[in-house]
Write a structure and sequence with these properties.
This protein is about 60% helix and about 10% strand. The strands form seven sheets. Strands 11, 12, 13, 18, 19, 20 and 21 form a seven-stranded antiparallel β-sheet that branches. A six-stranded antiparallel β-sheet has the order 4-5-1-6-7-8, sandwiched between helices. Strands 2-3 form a two-stranded antiparallel sheet.
């Protein structure tokens, strides 16, 4: 069996098209490899920095992850939030969603005064709590505690108001637990005053209701009421209820708080908390699981704490020795999380474990009820600590995984990189937010609850930043300030500060990505290789094999033994054969124990076998990065070749057209089959008749969604359902079918005995909510004494064919009587689980049937849940529409077509693997043959032993082949899916399409759907509609998924267009970044979901389960949240949860994802113009093709296919173009121009252009220099292309220029005149040089000014001089050199002792100086101007700055030198272009001195000098090619070509001279550096 990593995807496709064959041959040329090397050098510094970063201590990395996971699971088992939430919903429905009897329109939240509170308690609270033994059959009221707080009164200090009120409240703060005792009262031991008892142990008057019925509780309240509800003294009252549900193993702590504010209004709030004492009373499944997880986690925690203590000890040693706390930021997270976990475990042991067996029901003592209430409140504290620890653990896991998978650190790296900016930004934002919060508090706080406190004002402003704005309320509260406040706040925060924060995050991320992207990819590749190595070792261990050379040895043995050898060779061959024989024997004799030991050793060594030195790891990263870059370049070249291939693009167009037809057919089939629009119309009708009508319940009007107990269910059936059945036709169009109008199915449950010591005294039986079996026992109604027969499951006689007790509503019968019988027999009592009502309507206008059912589900928590569903069913679908049948047949045909296409591709992969397997099988057979030969033939057994041996070998061979075939099938499927990501979508879509075909066939061949007839009697037809409806629901769901995938599959055809394929290109480019980002995103999201589940799930149903909590957190990202519910669930941690979640996800993570996509989008846009060759004509042709548009490209592809072209546009490759040129050369005689190793010949019948000759020159240079000379590299810019080119003045403009005219001209005109004068002077120098050559006279100096230029320069102002020298429109390099050579340093600066001073004197003086004196002179000259140079380099107005230094302007040459500091390389260019050796020498010392005696700056100068020579050589070669083309066309100008040849030879000779000079200079660098250091020390002294 082969492991899954041995065969690469490229080897899995045996069928290669001509295009793929071309792509395989693509290799990178030397220039492209040089680019890769250059990029590798650029990121080498980042590699060093990455290795220097302090890594996370990953020893036990997986232990930390596993331990965190175990803790999370343990917390979920201890705190069963779902059970608490279900029980909370049931209890709140009874206490808060039930109207009072005397005030039908008021609920719990509508209590406004003491009278309302009294009515609520008497007519609702006591009725629900003590009317029956259990609240709705399952919830046992353990006890109730009332806590009263009274206000202390004093005489009204304002005499003028004493008639209105004689007393006032001394302390009007009515929050429970903060008022002082007014008096001690004890009446018949009904209530007492406690200093530290009561609600939240805040003290107050307390009364207990335990083990009493409704009459006793009402009597006790009547005694309490006068004192407890005295309006003059009442401050607050808390009602606490302990409710136990044995079905859920949950005890609920529910409390209500009634407060009167200082303004006089009433406020009623409630809350819950759940505990689970019953779980730990008996060693059952839950307790066993918790104990096991607790032990496992305890062991892991000990190891984690031990590792943490080691790190802290190391940090303490560092603090003691280096006085530096060596703790990384992520270690603080680990410390805090460990502390919270230890606190959580301590609380669990103290709160839960120590209370096991101490409390049992029923409670007889008040202290026991207090103990349970304290238990619930303390358990809530445990939940808060646990939820916070879970969140921090997730961040710790990400930090740990970051070391294994570096891309996981994108969040922390980004925040760490921008921490200073974020801190400063946060400070400014908090400051501004405080100001706006105070302003909102003052302006709107008196009218709006959202601004009534500073805290709520902050949260409201935070909501506004997130886009939740209630401007109308603000305007109504203060219409003067509201517009200004709103506009300024939203403009400042929503548009400015928010986007500023985003800019900080995005810029930091993009900077980190540009710096570390390749490094992260390389590390990910190395991690992948390590994982594959690990997987290979595991497979070897499972298959009992080790890497060996037995097969290769066998092949080599066979080859050596089959060849003929000479006598001289035979002895060596025999020796080699003996070695191979021994090797084969030894490897074949390895036992299973040895193989297992070896593989286990490989696994146990782990990372120790991969330890590398720093240099080795660096080299490994570099090699990996180089491979990545080379593969990227190859991919780009592949894409461009594919883009231009006609067959490839025509295939895409053809498949795209076929696929569009398939999509149209699939959509038509779905729309015609389901008729969604008509179905919705019918659903509206049913909804209006079932869900919308009101019913009367104790004088209140309620709807179906308000039915939450059995009494309301019976009222709903009488008031809504029965009148609906009595209508013959509903809305004039919907008819009932047959005599049976509807069917009811009842399902009952059986109880189990209660053996739990905590509750068995008060709860004898219970229902297991996790068992779905229903009772099949017949029963007799408790009121009607009628027998209810059971209908078994498996037939259409019951709801969903699951059995039950069936009732029918027939036409003409009194249906109210049956409903009354239901109520009389209490069929929805504790035994009744589900009551389902079903009926069918027919609409002749639409020819559709409507199957409807309504269920009442009695939950084990005591909550009755209702659900209503309505579906449309169409029968005889082909009766009036043959078109539908045709489209469905087309859909079947397309499905089989694409199945065939995918199977064909898969078969290619299978065939390749099969050939590979056969080759390996041949090798194994060869090994067996050789072993048989070496060991000799064994004696064959006879008789029964032979038969058994034969059968055993046959069975072993069969099983082996079967396993190999299964493994080969798995590998072929994986290989097929790896070839193209769209293959996954294709496979899923085809599978879904076949499922759709199966459902369509099932519906088409069904007897019910084809030949439905109304039954004369019975309700079995309703079950048939149920079966047909289930099939239609499945078909519709499959069709919905398939339609989505079909449209996603279209993206694979967008490769034809660069614009349309942008999405797929971005996803392909960013797949690694997106993958790790999503993983990190989901870990953090899951952590917050767990925190919300543990912290809020007991109260907010959106966080009921982990999955629903995930959805709720995701909805929060989209702006859908209920902050009020979150605060009610937990005011402190709930608000912290909300704020941190929104900041982290909305402001950071989501925009980080935008940055990822944006960065790769920019990369894709930059790569669109990549070309295989440097051909302008090819580039132009490609641009013309790309401008055609989508449909234009399709037409162009079809046209090229019809014309049998191979390419869409001409882009002849370099080699093909060279072959064409070679074939075009003719043999006519022509003067040849030889330049070293290449020649240019006259050609015939060819385009006479310099471009053609340049290509020949490019090829010749590249070949003859072994790749060292590459024509584009000759012309490398020197960083001076940022100035504007100036057109010279005309000759006639210059002829009459005088000094007066020159002075009056602006700098730009002076520059134009100067350039024309330079041209004239150059022409004059050419004539003088030619004359000197003829006469043998001295050659004139080229780098100098004409006399007229010298006079004009002397009368030019300093400002205009500097503008011409360094302005945006300025002199070029050669003009600068000429001007430089016409100026001198002042005598005082260079040689104060000289009697005369001019240019020649300066040259003579400088040539006579030694190295030491030259350095000293330049140090003295440039020392004072160094600060000015630095200022000019940084200044935006260098000319203005230079003019402000008067001393600088006194020396012309010094002024010119210092002002050249505006450009980094201007001074080097001046040195490079200087033809005078003395001036060049002076410039080199000036550069040397200015660079603070750094002799290595000469290397940079030499490099720039070499580039300049290459640049000039390129110019000459270009000119040579242009001239050669002109000669080929015009048969002339041979003399000029010879001159160009001489120029080239001269430049080459000068380049050789420079190389020799550079080599000589480098030999003296070390000596020169020492001398410079000595001189520097002397100067300092």
């Amino acid at each position: 069996m082969e492991d899954p990593v041995e065969t690469s995807p490229e080897k899995l496709n045996p069928k290669r098209t001509s295009l793929s064959s071309k792509l395989e041959k693509v290799e990178l040329n030397d220039a492209q490899k040089a680019k890769v090397t250059e990029k590798l050098q650029d990121i080498e510094r980042n590699l060093e920095k990455s290795l220097e970063e302090t890594p996370v201590n990953v020893k036990g990395v997986y232990l930390s992850v596993v331990v965190s996971f175990v803790f999370i699971v343990l917390c979920m088992f201890i705190n069963k939030v779902e059970r608490v939430s279900w029980l909370t919903t049931a209890v709140k429905n009874y206490y808060e969603q039930t109207q009072w009897n005397v005030e039908p329109n008021k609920y719990f939240a509508d209590i406004e005064n003491e009278k309302d509170l009294d009515d609520y308690l008497r007519h609702n609270f006591f009725q629900q709590s003590f009317n029956d033994e259990f609240m709705n059959y399952f919830n046992y009221i353990v006890g109730v505690r009332f806590t009263l707080k009274l206000n202390e009164l004093q005489q009204n200090p304002f005499e003028e108001y004493q008639e209105a009120s004689g007393t006032v409240r001394k302390d009007p703060n009515i929050e429970p637990g903060k008022e002082n005792k007014q008096e001690f009262t004890q009446d018949l031991n009904i209530w007492t005053y406690e200093e530290k008892g009561g609600f939240k142990n805040g003290g107050g008057y307390t009364a207990y209701f335990m083990n009493m019925d409704l009459q006793d509780s009402l009597y006790k309240w009547r005694v309490m009421r006068p004192f407890w509800l005295d309006p003059s003294k009442f401050s607050s009252m808390a009602v606490e209820v302990i409710i136990h549900n044995h079905n859920q193993y949950t005890t609920l702590y529910y409390y209500q708080i009634f407060e009167r504010t200082s303004a006089g209004n009433f406020k009623a709030t409630s809350g819950t908390s759940g505990i689970f004492p019953e779980i730990f009373e008996v060693w059952e499944e839950d307790f066993t699981t918790i104990a096991t997880l607790f032990v496992i986690y305890a062991v892991g925690l000990v190891l984690q704490v031990y590792k943490l203590l080691q790190n802290l000890l190391r940090s303490c040693k560092t603090l003691w020795t280096k006085l530096k706390l060596d703790i990384v930021w992520h270690e603080y997270i680990e410390i805090i999380s460990v502390v919270l976990v230890v606190a959580s475990i301590s609380l669990f042991l103290d709160i839960v474990v120590t209370r096991i067996g101490k409390v049992k029901l029923p409670l007889t003592q008040r202290e026991d009820l207090d103990e349970l209430i304290d238990y619930a409140m303390e358990f809530r504290a445990f939940v808060r600590v646990t939820a916070t620890a879970v969140l921090l653990m997730a961040f710790k896991v990400i930090v740990v995984l970051k070391n294994k998978f570096p891309s996981f650190g994108v969040l922390f790296d980004t925040i760490g990189g921008a921490k200073r900016d974020i801190i400063n930004f946060s400070f400014i934002t908090l400051l501004l937010m405080t100001g706006f919060a105070l302003a909102g508090y003052l302006a709107f706080g008196k009218d709006l609850e959202a601004f009534s406190t500073l805290g709520s004002s902050f949260l409201t402003l935070f909501d506004m930043i997130l886009g939740v704005v209630e401007y109308d309320d603000m305007k109504e509260a203060n219409e003067v300030i509201a517009p200004f406040f709103f506009i300024v706040f939203m403009a400042l925060f929503f548009f400015i500060l928010l986007n500023t924060f985003l800019a900080i995050v995005l810029s930091t991320y993009i900077e980190l990505r540009n710096r570390d992207q390749l490094l992260l990819q390389a590390k990910a590749t190395l991690i992948k290789e390590d994982s594959q190595e690990f997987l290979r070792t595991v497979v070897n261990l499972l298959l009992c094999r080790i890497p060996n050379t037995i097969e290769s040895d066998a092949i080599k043995y066979q080859e050596l033994s089959s060849k003929d050898h000479t006598a001289a060779e035979q002895e060596a061959v025999n020796e080699e054969l003996r070695k191979l024989e021994n090797s084969i024997k030894q490897q074949s004799k390895q036992s299973i124990a040895e193989v297992t030991k070896y593989n286990i050793g490989q696994l146990s060594r782990g990372e120790s076998s991969k330890l590398l030195t720093r240099e080795q790891y660096m080299d490994k990263l570099k090699n990996c990065i180089q491979k990545i870059e080379e593969e990227k370049l190859k991919t780009k070249i592949h894409n461009q070749i594919s883009e231009n291939d006609v067959d490839y693009n025509f295939g895409l167009v053809k498949e795209m057209v076929i696929y569009l037809c398939f999509i149209l057919v699939a959509i038509t089939v779905a729309l015609m089959r389901f008729r969604i629009g008509d179905s919705f119309k019918l659903f509206e009708v049913v909804q209006q008749t079932v869900e919308e009508p009101y019913m009367t319940y104790y004088g209140s009007q309620i709807k179906l969604r308000n039915v939450n107990n059995d009494r309301r269910a019976y009222e709903y059936l009488r008031d809504v359902f029965v009148p609906l059945l009595e209508q013959e036709v509903v809305f004039s169009q919907n008819h009932y079918l047959g005599e049976v109008l509807a069917r009811a199915t009842l399902r009952r449950i059986d109880f189990q005995g209660n053996n739990n010591p905590f509750s068995k005294e008060v709860i004898n039986f219970w229902v297991d909510p996790w068992v779905s079996e229903y009772s099949s026992k017949e029963f007799v109604g408790s009121g009607s004494n009628k027998s209810y027969p059971y209908v078994p499951s498996g037939t259409t006689e019951t709801f969903q064919q699951e059995g039950g007790f069936v009732f029918t509503f027939k036409k003409g019968e009194d249906h109210t009587e049956l409903i009354n019988q239901f109520e009389e027999d209490r069929i929805l009592d504790k035994y009744g689980k589900v009551l389902a009502l079903e009926w069918v309507w027919y609409n002749p206008n639409l020819n559709l049937y409507t199957y409807n059912y309504l269920t009442f589900d009695n939950w084990s928590s005591g909550q009755l849940d209702t659900a209503f569903y309505s579906y449309t069913v169409e029968l005889d679908i082909y009766q009036n529409s043959i078109i539908r049948a045709v489209f469905e047949l087309l859909f079947v045909g397309f499905t089989f077509y694409y199945c065939f296409m995918e199977l064909r591709d898969w078969w290619g992969v299978w065939h390749a693997l099969n050939q590979e397997r056969q080759e390996k099988e041949k090798k194994r057979k060869l090994v067996k043959q050789l072993l048989k030969k070496f060991n000799g033939a064994s004696e064959e057994s006879k008789g029964c032993g032979a038969i058994v041996g034969f059968l055993g070998r046959y069975l072993k061979s069969f099983l082996k082949k079967l396993v190999l075939l299964i493994w080969q099938f798995i590998r072929s499927v994986l290989g097929y899916l790896q070839k193209d990501p769209f293959n996954i979508l294709d496979s899923i879509s085809i599978a879904l399409s076949f499922i759709m075909v199966g459902y369509i066939i099932q519906l088409t061949t069904s007897e019910f759907t084809r030949n439905f007839e109304l039954p004369a009697e019975g309700a079995a037809y309703i079950g048939e509609f149920d079966l047909a409806n289930k099939t239609l629901i499945s078909l519709r769901n499959i069709a919905a998924y398939n339609c989505l995938i079909l449209f996603l599959r279209q993206l694979q055809f967008f490769k034809f267009s660069k614009k349309l394929s942008l999405l797929t290109d971005i996803l392909e480019s960013a797949k690694l970044d997106i993958l790790f980002f999503i993983a990190m995103f989901m870990i953090v999201l899951f952590a917050y979901a767990l925190m919300g589940y543990l912290l809020l799930g007991h109260y907010d149903p959106k966080f009921l389960t982990v999955s629903e909590s995930l959805v709720a957190c995701y909805n929060m990202l989209l702006g859908e949240y209920d902050r009020e519910n979150i605060e009610l669930a937990d005011q402190v941690l709930g608000s912290l949860f909300f704020v941190t979640f929104m900041i982290l996800f909305n402001l950071i993570l989501l925009n980080m994802f935008i940055a990822i996509v944006g960065a790769h989008f920019e990369n894709i846009k930059e790569e669109e113009d990549l070309e295989v060759e440097n051909s302008k004509s090819a580039k132009k042709a490609r641009e013309q093709f790309m401008r055609k548009g989508f449909f234009g490209k399709i037409l162009h592809v079809i046209k090229c296919k019809l014309e049998k072209k191979e390419k869409l546009y001409e882009d002849q490759g370099f080699e093909e173009h060279l072959e064409l040129l070679s074939a075009s050369l003719h043999k006519e005689t022509q003067p040849k121009l030889e330049v070293e190793d290449f020649e240019v010949q006259k050609i015939k019948n060819f385009d006479y252009s310099a471009v053609s000759w340049m290509k020949i020159l490019e090829k010749t240079l590249f070949d003859n220099s072994s790749g060292d000379l590459h024509l584009p590299n000759f012309k490398r810019g020197l960083g001076q292309q940022d100035f504007q080119l100036v057109t010279p003045a005309r000759v006639e403009e210059v002829c009459f220029v005088s000094e007066e005219i020159w002075v009056s001209e602006p700098p730009l005109e002076k520059l134009r005149i100067w350039k024309q004068l330079t041209i004239g002077h150059s022409n004059h120098l050419i004539c003088e040089r030619n004359r000197a050559i003829q006469t043998g006279a001295e050659m004139p100096d080229e780098a100098s000014l004409s006399p007229k230029q010298q006079k004009l320069w002397e009368v030019t102002s300093r400002e205009h001089q500097l503008s011409m020298w360094i302005g945006r429109e300025r002199l070029d390099d050669s003009e600068r050199v000429a001007l430089w050579n016409s100026t001198t340093f002042s005598k005082e600066k260079l040689n104060p002792e000289a009697l005369q001073w001019n240019f020649q004197e300066q040259r003579s003086f400088w040539s006579s100086q030694t190295h030491e004196s030259k350095l000293k002179i330049m140090h003295q000259i440039l020392q004072d101007s160094s600060k000015v140079s630095k200022a000019i380099r940084k200044s935006k107005e260098p000319i203005k700055l230079a003019l402000s230094h008067k001393e600088l302007l006194k020396d012309t040459r010094l002024m010119l030198w210092v002002t050249l500091s505006v450009e980094d390389k201007s001074k080097l260019n001046l040195y490079i272009n200087e033809p005078d050796s003395v001036e060049a020498d002076m410039l080199s010392y000036m550069i040397l001195t200015e660079r603070k005696l750094n002799v290595f700056s000469l290397d940079e100068a030499d490099e720039l000098l070499s580039k300049l020579v290459d640049s000039k050589l390129y110019d000459k070669l270009s000119e040579l090619c242009s001239y050669q083309a002109e000669v080929s066309a015009n048969k002339g100008n041979e003399q000029r070509l010879q001159g160009v040849k001489s120029d080239i030879s001269g430049l080459e000779e000068y380049k050789s001279y420079l190389k020799e000079s550079i080599s000589s200079a480098q030999e003296h660098q070390r000596k020169l550096k020492r001398r410079v250091m000595e001189l520097e020390r002397k100067l300092d002294k």
